């Protein structure tokens, strides 16, 4: 009997993840620890069943998308702006300090020049998925500390989008074997990627501004359409009336 790799990966993965997650919870550990062990058990480096890695990677991507989508449903732009005084400078400072230290450590270990920037970037950001899951388990997402943490993570994710656009070019520039023609190609590639990123940001900002204007216009129309007695009653409640 032929069993689909998709079915076997989902079924065995869910059973192991649920069982080990419950066990971790009983041991007063985060369920994420159990999920991690479940992934190790069905991975290629342990005996027994081996999950299809391509399918597992795709399912993991879907899981991350759904997790971020769920956070977005509860986190608004106003929440981010309310903690911008802490989240924005804190996240940027963390990246500016950790990334060069990671680069220096990679080069100190004798790694290739192009590997240093990648290692530094990896050290400069926190795991959004892990931290969000921990906040949700402790019901801290809606608290002030939770909003600061989520805002911090969102700022890091936004910065990482730009970094990932530039990283291939920067890694190539650090590589000793890059010739002059290669450098020119890298510059053109980085410029094209930055242009695409700028267009994306501009479109998103225009859509946000358009929605804001539409909502303000609808509010004004509703206010004008209110009956005159209602508007007069509101005016009588003003402190100078």
Number of helices: 10
Strand content: under 5%
* Overall pLDDT confidence: 75
Helix and strand content put the structural class at mainly alpha
Helical residues, percent: over 70%
Number-wise, the strands total: 0
Pick out the low-confidence regions.
176-181, 231-241
Name the overall outline. globular
The N- and C-terminal alpha carbons lie at a distance of 83 Å
SSE succession: HHHHHHHHHH
- Specify Rg, calculated over alpha carbons: 25 Å
- Please summarize the sheet with the most strands: none
Tell me what the structure shows.
- With 241 residues, the protein is an all-alpha fold.
- The N and C termini lie far apart (83 Å).
- It contains ten helices and no strands.
- The protein has a domain at 1-74.
- It has helices at 5-26, 31-41, 53-74, 77-82, 84-108, 115-123, 128-137, 144-174, 180-224, 228-236.
Structure characteristics:
241 residues; mainly alpha; 0% strand
How would you summarize this macromolecular structure in one to three sentences?
With 241 residues, this protein is an all-alpha fold. The chain has helices at 5-26, 31-41, 53-74, 77-82, 84-108, 115-123, 128-137, 144-174, 180-224, 228-236. α8 runs antiparallel to α9 (180-224).
């Amino acid at each position: 009997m032929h069993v689909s790799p998709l079915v076997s990966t989902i079924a065995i993965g869910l059973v192991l993840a649920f069982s080990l997650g419950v066990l971790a919870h009983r041991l007063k550990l985060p369920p994420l620890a159990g999920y991690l062990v479940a992934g190790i058990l069905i991975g290629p480096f342990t005996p027994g069943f081996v999950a299809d890695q391509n399918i597992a990677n795709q399912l993991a991507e879907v899981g991350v998308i759904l997790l971020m989508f769920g956070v977005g449903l509860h986190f608004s732009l106003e929440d981010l702006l309310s903690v911008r005084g802490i989240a924005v400078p804190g996240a940027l400072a963390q990246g500016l300090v950790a990334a060069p230290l990671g680069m220096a450590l990679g080069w100190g270990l004798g790694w290739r020049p192009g590997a240093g920037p990648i290692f530094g970037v990896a050290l400069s950001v926190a795991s959004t998925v892990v931290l969000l899951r921990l906040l949700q388990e402790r019901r801290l997402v809606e608290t002030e500390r939770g909003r600061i943490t989520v805002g911090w993570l969102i700022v890091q994710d936004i910065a990482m989008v730009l970094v990932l656009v530039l990283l291939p070019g920067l890694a190539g520039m650090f590589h000793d074997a890059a010739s002059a023609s290669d450098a020119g190609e890298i510059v053109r590639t980085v410029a094209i990627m930055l242009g695409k990123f700028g267009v994306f940001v501009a479109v998103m900002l225009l859509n946000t501004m358009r929605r804001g204007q539409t909502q303000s216009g609808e509010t004004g129309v509703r206010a004008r359409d209110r009956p005159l007695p209602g508007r007069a009653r509101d005016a009588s409640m003003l402190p100078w009336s």
